[in-house]
Write a structure and sequence with these properties.
- 37% of the residues lie in helices and 17% in strands.
- By secondary structure, it is of the alpha+beta class.
- The strands form 2 sheets. A 5-stranded antiparallel β-sheet has the order 2-1-5-4-3, sandwiched between helices. Strands 8-7-6-10-9 form a 5-stranded antiparallel β-sheet.
- A hairpin with a 5-residue loop joins strand 7 (241-245) and strand 8.
Amino acid sequence: MNTPDSRLNQIALARRALVQGGAELTDALVGAWLDRAWIVRSWQRCLARGARPDRPVVFEPAPRRAGADAAEQHGELLALARPALQRLARQIAPVRYFALLTDARGTVIDTAGAIDHRDRATHAIARIGIDLSEQSIGTSAIGAALAERAPVWLHRGEHFFTDTGVYSCAGAPLFGPDGNCLGMIDVTGVDVPERPELQHLVAHTARQIEEALILARPHSLRLRLSWPEGWQVSGGGGAEGLLCLDADGQVVGANSSARQMLPALHTLAGAPLHAADLFALPWAGLFDAAVQDGPRTVPLWSGLRLQLRAERRQRAPLAAPRSLKALESALIDQAVRDAGGRVAEAARKLGVSRATVYRRLAAMRKGAPG
Protein backbone atom coordinates (compact mmCIF):
# COMPACT_ATOMS: atom_id res chain seq x y z
CA MET A 1 0.00 0.00 0.00
CA ASN A 2 1.41 3.38 -1.04
CA THR A 3 0.79 5.52 2.08
CA PRO A 4 1.64 9.25 2.25
CA ASP A 5 4.72 8.42 4.35
CA SER A 6 5.94 5.74 1.94
CA ARG A 7 5.41 8.12 -0.98
CA LEU A 8 7.56 10.78 0.70
CA ASN A 9 10.20 8.15 1.46
CA GLN A 10 10.26 7.10 -2.21
CA ILE A 11 10.68 10.71 -3.24
CA ALA A 12 13.55 11.16 -0.79
CA LEU A 13 15.29 8.05 -2.13
CA ALA A 14 14.86 9.24 -5.70
CA ARG A 15 16.26 12.67 -4.83
CA ARG A 16 19.34 11.18 -3.22
CA ALA A 17 19.95 8.71 -6.05
CA LEU A 18 19.51 11.31 -8.76
CA VAL A 19 21.96 13.76 -7.18
CA GLN A 20 24.56 11.21 -6.11
CA GLY A 21 24.27 9.26 -9.34
CA GLY A 22 25.05 12.18 -11.57
CA ALA A 23 21.44 12.70 -12.73
CA GLU A 24 21.11 9.14 -14.03
CA LEU A 25 17.90 7.14 -13.79
CA THR A 26 18.26 4.54 -11.05
CA ASP A 27 16.19 1.80 -9.41
CA ALA A 28 15.26 4.28 -6.70
CA LEU A 29 13.04 6.07 -9.21
CA VAL A 30 10.74 3.05 -9.43
CA GLY A 31 7.48 3.79 -7.67
CA ALA A 32 8.32 7.47 -7.21
CA TRP A 33 9.11 9.01 -10.61
CA LEU A 34 8.96 6.11 -13.04
CA ASP A 35 5.86 7.48 -14.76
CA ARG A 36 6.92 11.11 -14.37
CA ALA A 37 10.02 11.51 -16.50
CA TRP A 38 9.43 15.25 -16.77
CA ILE A 39 10.58 15.61 -13.14
CA VAL A 40 13.84 13.89 -13.99
CA ARG A 41 14.29 16.15 -17.02
CA SER A 42 13.73 19.22 -14.88
CA TRP A 43 16.19 18.02 -12.23
CA GLN A 44 18.74 17.30 -14.92
CA ARG A 45 18.39 20.85 -16.28
CA CYS A 46 18.88 22.25 -12.78
CA LEU A 47 21.98 20.12 -12.20
CA ALA A 48 23.34 21.09 -15.63
CA ARG A 49 23.11 24.75 -14.58
CA GLY A 50 25.31 23.94 -11.60
CA ALA A 51 22.53 24.17 -9.02
CA ARG A 52 22.53 21.98 -5.92
CA PRO A 53 19.39 21.05 -3.93
CA ASP A 54 20.72 22.46 -0.66
CA ARG A 55 21.41 25.91 -2.10
CA PRO A 56 19.20 28.58 -0.45
CA VAL A 57 16.39 29.90 -2.64
CA VAL A 58 16.19 33.68 -2.56
CA PHE A 59 12.89 35.23 -3.65
CA GLU A 60 13.76 38.65 -4.98
CA PRO A 61 11.53 41.64 -4.13
CA ALA A 62 8.76 42.29 -6.63
CA PRO A 63 9.48 45.16 -9.06
CA ARG A 64 8.11 48.50 -7.88
CA ARG A 65 5.51 48.78 -10.66
CA ALA A 66 4.77 45.07 -11.00
CA GLY A 67 0.99 45.46 -10.80
CA ALA A 68 0.84 48.33 -13.26
CA ASP A 69 3.21 46.57 -15.65
CA ALA A 70 1.10 43.38 -15.54
CA ALA A 71 -2.04 45.37 -16.34
CA GLU A 72 -0.32 47.12 -19.25
CA GLN A 73 1.27 44.03 -20.78
CA HIS A 74 -1.43 41.43 -20.07
CA GLY A 75 -4.63 43.44 -19.70
CA GLU A 76 -6.87 41.27 -21.88
CA LEU A 77 -5.57 38.02 -20.40
CA LEU A 78 -6.05 39.30 -16.85
CA ALA A 79 -9.59 40.49 -17.54
CA LEU A 80 -10.69 37.29 -19.26
CA ALA A 81 -8.89 34.92 -16.88
CA ARG A 82 -10.04 36.55 -13.64
CA PRO A 83 -13.53 34.94 -13.43
CA ALA A 84 -12.16 31.42 -13.95
CA LEU A 85 -9.25 32.09 -11.59
CA GLN A 86 -11.63 33.19 -8.85
CA ARG A 87 -13.86 30.14 -9.38
CA LEU A 88 -10.80 27.94 -9.10
CA ALA A 89 -9.71 29.69 -5.91
CA ARG A 90 -13.11 29.10 -4.30
CA GLN A 91 -12.98 25.41 -5.20
CA ILE A 92 -9.54 24.82 -3.69
CA ALA A 93 -9.97 26.97 -0.58
CA PRO A 94 -11.24 24.05 1.60
CA VAL A 95 -7.98 22.15 1.03
CA ARG A 96 -5.85 25.25 1.77
CA TYR A 97 -4.53 25.89 -1.73
CA PHE A 98 -4.44 29.21 -3.61
CA ALA A 99 -4.15 30.10 -7.29
CA LEU A 100 -1.52 31.92 -9.35
CA LEU A 101 -1.47 33.10 -12.96
CA THR A 102 1.93 33.58 -14.60
CA ASP A 103 3.15 34.85 -17.93
CA ALA A 104 5.09 32.67 -20.38
CA ARG A 105 8.35 33.35 -18.51
CA GLY A 106 6.97 32.15 -15.16
CA THR A 107 6.45 35.58 -13.58
CA VAL A 108 3.32 35.96 -11.44
CA ILE A 109 0.80 38.38 -12.97
CA ASP A 110 -2.25 37.61 -10.79
CA THR A 111 -3.23 35.77 -7.62
CA ALA A 112 -6.52 34.53 -6.17
CA GLY A 113 -7.76 32.76 -3.07
CA ALA A 114 -7.16 32.74 0.65
CA ILE A 115 -3.55 33.94 0.69
CA ASP A 116 -2.06 34.42 4.14
CA HIS A 117 0.78 36.89 3.67
CA ARG A 118 1.76 36.44 7.31
CA ASP A 119 3.05 33.00 6.32
CA ARG A 120 6.58 33.44 4.96
CA ALA A 121 6.42 30.58 2.44
CA THR A 122 3.07 31.77 1.09
CA HIS A 123 4.10 35.42 0.87
CA ALA A 124 7.31 34.45 -0.95
CA ILE A 125 5.47 33.24 -4.06
CA ALA A 126 1.99 34.82 -3.98
CA ARG A 127 3.03 38.28 -5.16
CA ILE A 128 2.60 39.92 -8.55
CA GLY A 129 5.97 40.35 -10.25
CA ILE A 130 7.77 37.44 -8.54
CA ASP A 131 9.88 35.27 -10.86
CA LEU A 132 8.93 31.61 -10.30
CA SER A 133 10.62 30.20 -13.40
CA GLU A 134 12.71 27.05 -13.32
CA GLN A 135 15.86 29.16 -13.65
CA SER A 136 14.88 31.05 -10.51
CA ILE A 137 13.40 28.43 -8.13
CA GLY A 138 14.22 25.10 -9.80
CA THR A 139 11.70 22.33 -10.40
CA SER A 140 8.12 23.40 -9.69
CA ALA A 141 4.72 23.02 -11.32
CA ILE A 142 5.20 26.45 -12.89
CA GLY A 143 8.51 25.74 -14.60
CA ALA A 144 7.52 22.17 -15.51
CA ALA A 145 4.16 23.12 -17.05
CA LEU A 146 5.84 25.79 -19.16
CA ALA A 147 8.68 23.48 -20.22
CA GLU A 148 6.56 20.40 -20.90
CA ARG A 149 3.52 22.27 -22.29
CA ALA A 150 1.34 19.85 -20.31
CA PRO A 151 -0.45 19.69 -16.93
CA VAL A 152 1.69 18.48 -14.02
CA TRP A 153 1.46 17.67 -10.31
CA LEU A 154 4.37 18.17 -7.91
CA HIS A 155 4.55 17.25 -4.21
CA ARG A 156 7.00 18.36 -1.55
CA GLY A 157 10.42 16.80 -2.17
CA GLU A 158 9.81 16.51 -5.91
CA HIS A 159 10.80 20.16 -6.06
CA PHE A 160 14.50 20.51 -6.83
CA PHE A 161 15.55 22.76 -3.98
CA THR A 162 15.15 21.72 -0.35
CA ASP A 163 13.83 25.20 0.46
CA THR A 164 10.83 24.70 -1.84
CA GLY A 165 9.97 21.29 -0.38
CA VAL A 166 7.18 22.85 1.70
CA TYR A 167 5.05 23.38 -1.41
CA SER A 168 2.63 21.06 -3.21
CA CYS A 169 1.39 22.35 -6.54
CA ALA A 170 -0.40 21.59 -9.79
CA GLY A 171 0.01 23.53 -13.01
CA ALA A 172 -1.30 23.68 -16.56
CA PRO A 173 -0.08 25.71 -19.53
CA LEU A 174 -2.33 28.35 -21.03
CA PHE A 175 -2.47 28.76 -24.81
CA GLY A 176 -3.75 31.68 -26.83
CA PRO A 177 -6.09 31.48 -29.84
CA ASP A 178 -3.09 31.13 -32.18
CA GLY A 179 -1.55 28.27 -30.18
CA ASN A 180 1.24 30.26 -28.54
CA CYS A 181 1.83 29.67 -24.84
CA LEU A 182 0.73 32.75 -22.89
CA GLY A 183 1.59 31.47 -19.42
CA MET A 184 0.19 28.97 -16.96
CA ILE A 185 -2.27 28.43 -14.13
CA ASP A 186 -0.88 27.16 -10.82
CA VAL A 187 -2.45 26.06 -7.56
CA THR A 188 -0.16 25.77 -4.53
CA GLY A 189 -0.47 24.75 -0.89
CA VAL A 190 2.06 25.08 1.92
CA ASP A 191 2.59 22.03 4.17
CA VAL A 192 -0.62 20.43 2.93
CA PRO A 193 -1.62 16.82 2.08
CA GLU A 194 -1.06 15.61 -1.46
CA ARG A 195 -3.98 16.35 -3.84
CA PRO A 196 -3.00 15.04 -7.32
CA GLU A 197 -6.60 15.49 -8.54
CA LEU A 198 -5.87 19.22 -8.64
CA GLN A 199 -3.95 18.57 -11.86
CA HIS A 200 -7.23 17.82 -13.62
CA LEU A 201 -8.96 20.81 -12.04
CA VAL A 202 -6.26 23.27 -13.05
CA ALA A 203 -6.20 21.86 -16.60
CA HIS A 204 -9.98 22.34 -16.79
CA THR A 205 -9.57 25.96 -15.66
CA ALA A 206 -6.93 26.56 -18.32
CA ARG A 207 -9.34 25.28 -21.00
CA GLN A 208 -12.04 27.64 -19.73
CA ILE A 209 -9.68 30.60 -20.03
CA GLU A 210 -8.52 29.50 -23.48
CA GLU A 211 -12.15 29.42 -24.62
CA ALA A 212 -12.80 32.89 -23.22
CA LEU A 213 -9.75 34.22 -25.11
CA ILE A 214 -10.91 32.65 -28.37
CA LEU A 215 -14.50 33.85 -28.10
CA ALA A 216 -13.31 37.39 -27.33
CA ARG A 217 -11.74 37.60 -30.80
CA PRO A 218 -13.93 39.00 -33.60
CA HIS A 219 -15.45 36.04 -35.43
CA SER A 220 -18.57 35.07 -37.35
CA LEU A 221 -18.80 31.33 -36.74
CA ARG A 222 -17.70 28.99 -33.99
CA LEU A 223 -17.36 25.25 -34.54
CA ARG A 224 -17.42 22.77 -31.66
CA LEU A 225 -15.64 19.60 -32.72
CA SER A 226 -15.67 15.98 -31.58
CA TRP A 227 -14.95 12.57 -32.97
CA PRO A 228 -18.14 10.84 -34.18
CA GLU A 229 -18.28 8.30 -31.34
CA GLY A 230 -19.38 9.60 -27.97
CA TRP A 231 -20.51 13.04 -29.12
CA GLN A 232 -21.73 15.13 -26.23
CA VAL A 233 -23.18 18.59 -26.52
CA SER A 234 -21.23 20.86 -24.21
CA GLY A 235 -21.00 24.61 -23.91
CA GLY A 236 -18.52 24.70 -21.07
CA GLY A 237 -15.15 24.12 -22.67
CA GLY A 238 -14.57 20.47 -21.91
CA ALA A 239 -12.40 18.20 -24.08
CA GLU A 240 -14.24 19.26 -27.25
CA GLY A 241 -12.47 21.24 -29.93
CA LEU A 242 -13.33 24.90 -30.50
CA LEU A 243 -12.60 26.60 -33.81
CA CYS A 244 -13.63 30.15 -34.77
CA LEU A 245 -13.87 31.54 -38.33
CA ASP A 246 -14.38 35.00 -39.72
CA ALA A 247 -16.97 35.76 -42.42
CA ASP A 248 -14.48 34.79 -45.16
CA GLY A 249 -13.74 31.39 -43.64
CA GLN A 250 -10.35 32.34 -42.21
CA VAL A 251 -9.42 30.70 -38.92
CA VAL A 252 -9.13 33.30 -36.16
CA GLY A 253 -8.68 31.00 -33.16
CA ALA A 254 -8.62 27.42 -31.94
CA ASN A 255 -8.23 25.68 -28.59
CA SER A 256 -5.81 22.90 -27.65
CA SER A 257 -8.29 20.10 -28.39
CA ALA A 258 -8.99 21.46 -31.88
CA ARG A 259 -5.25 21.63 -32.59
CA GLN A 260 -4.92 17.98 -31.59
CA MET A 261 -7.80 16.99 -33.88
CA LEU A 262 -6.58 19.15 -36.78
CA PRO A 263 -2.75 19.16 -36.89
CA ALA A 264 -2.75 21.80 -39.64
CA LEU A 265 -3.80 24.30 -36.96
CA HIS A 266 -0.28 24.18 -35.57
CA THR A 267 0.69 26.47 -38.46
CA LEU A 268 -1.83 29.07 -37.31
CA ALA A 269 0.76 31.12 -35.45
CA GLY A 270 2.88 31.48 -38.58
CA ALA A 271 0.48 32.02 -41.50
CA PRO A 272 -3.23 32.53 -42.25
CA LEU A 273 -5.23 29.33 -42.42
CA HIS A 274 -8.58 28.84 -44.16
CA ALA A 275 -11.39 26.43 -43.34
CA ALA A 276 -10.90 24.95 -46.82
CA ASP A 277 -7.46 23.78 -45.69
CA LEU A 278 -9.05 21.75 -42.89
CA PHE A 279 -12.33 20.32 -44.15
CA ALA A 280 -12.85 18.36 -47.37
CA LEU A 281 -16.07 20.13 -48.34
CA PRO A 282 -17.12 23.58 -49.61
CA TRP A 283 -16.31 25.83 -46.66
CA ALA A 284 -19.47 27.94 -47.04
CA GLY A 285 -21.43 24.84 -46.02
CA LEU A 286 -20.06 25.26 -42.52
CA PHE A 287 -22.09 28.46 -42.18
CA ASP A 288 -25.18 26.64 -43.46
CA ALA A 289 -24.68 24.07 -40.68
CA ALA A 290 -25.32 26.80 -38.11
CA VAL A 291 -29.04 26.74 -38.93
CA GLN A 292 -29.33 22.97 -38.56
CA ASP A 293 -30.38 21.17 -35.40
CA GLY A 294 -27.86 18.75 -33.95
CA PRO A 295 -24.27 17.92 -34.94
CA ARG A 296 -23.12 17.33 -38.49
CA THR A 297 -20.48 14.85 -39.66
CA VAL A 298 -17.85 16.39 -41.96
CA PRO A 299 -14.88 14.86 -43.82
CA LEU A 300 -11.26 15.85 -43.32
CA TRP A 301 -8.58 15.80 -46.02
CA SER A 302 -6.91 12.93 -44.14
CA GLY A 303 -9.92 10.69 -44.79
CA LEU A 304 -11.10 10.84 -41.19
CA ARG A 305 -14.37 12.44 -40.18
CA LEU A 306 -15.36 14.79 -37.39
CA GLN A 307 -18.66 15.81 -35.94
CA LEU A 308 -19.25 19.51 -35.48
CA ARG A 309 -21.87 21.83 -34.13
CA ALA A 310 -21.82 25.22 -35.81
CA GLU A 311 -22.94 28.35 -33.97
CA ARG A 312 -23.26 31.86 -35.31
CA ARG A 313 -21.67 34.44 -33.08
CA GLN A 314 -24.06 36.25 -30.82
CA ARG A 315 -24.42 39.96 -31.34
CA ALA A 316 -22.72 40.83 -28.04
CA PRO A 317 -19.32 39.31 -27.17
CA LEU A 318 -19.52 36.51 -24.63
CA ALA A 319 -16.63 37.82 -22.58
CA ALA A 320 -15.61 41.39 -23.28
CA PRO A 321 -12.54 42.68 -21.45
CA ARG A 322 -13.11 45.15 -18.67
CA SER A 323 -12.13 48.77 -19.17
CA LEU A 324 -8.57 49.73 -18.27
CA LYS A 325 -9.85 51.80 -15.33
CA ALA A 326 -11.86 48.87 -14.00
CA LEU A 327 -8.84 46.59 -14.31
CA GLU A 328 -6.62 49.12 -12.56
CA SER A 329 -9.18 49.43 -9.76
CA ALA A 330 -9.21 45.66 -9.31
CA LEU A 331 -5.40 45.58 -9.14
CA ILE A 332 -5.35 48.40 -6.57
CA ASP A 333 -7.96 46.61 -4.46
CA GLN A 334 -5.91 43.38 -4.64
CA ALA A 335 -2.70 45.23 -3.70
CA VAL A 336 -4.34 46.84 -0.67
CA ARG A 337 -5.69 43.48 0.49
CA ASP A 338 -2.28 41.86 -0.03
CA ALA A 339 -0.73 44.64 2.07
CA GLY A 340 -3.17 44.01 4.90
CA GLY A 341 -4.94 47.32 4.35
CA ARG A 342 -1.72 49.37 4.43
CA VAL A 343 -2.27 51.92 1.68
CA ALA A 344 1.27 53.26 1.74
CA GLU A 345 2.76 49.79 1.17
CA ALA A 346 0.24 49.03 -1.61
CA ALA A 347 1.05 52.34 -3.32
CA ARG A 348 4.77 51.62 -3.13
CA LYS A 349 4.38 48.19 -4.72
CA LEU A 350 2.14 49.54 -7.48
CA GLY A 351 4.43 52.49 -8.17
CA VAL A 352 1.68 55.08 -7.69
CA SER A 353 0.99 57.77 -5.11
CA ARG A 354 -1.04 57.19 -1.98
CA ALA A 355 -3.46 59.85 -3.19
CA THR A 356 -4.14 57.77 -6.32
CA VAL A 357 -4.89 54.69 -4.23
CA TYR A 358 -7.19 56.61 -1.88
CA ARG A 359 -9.01 58.23 -4.81
CA ARG A 360 -9.58 54.90 -6.59
CA LEU A 361 -10.74 53.21 -3.39
CA ALA A 362 -13.19 56.03 -2.75
CA ALA A 363 -14.54 55.74 -6.29
CA MET A 364 -15.02 51.97 -5.88
CA ARG A 365 -16.98 52.50 -2.67
CA LYS A 366 -19.31 54.83 -4.56
CA GLY A 367 -19.75 52.20 -7.27
CA ALA A 368 -17.84 54.13 -9.93
CA PRO A 369 -14.99 52.58 -11.98
CA GLY A 370 -12.47 55.17 -10.72
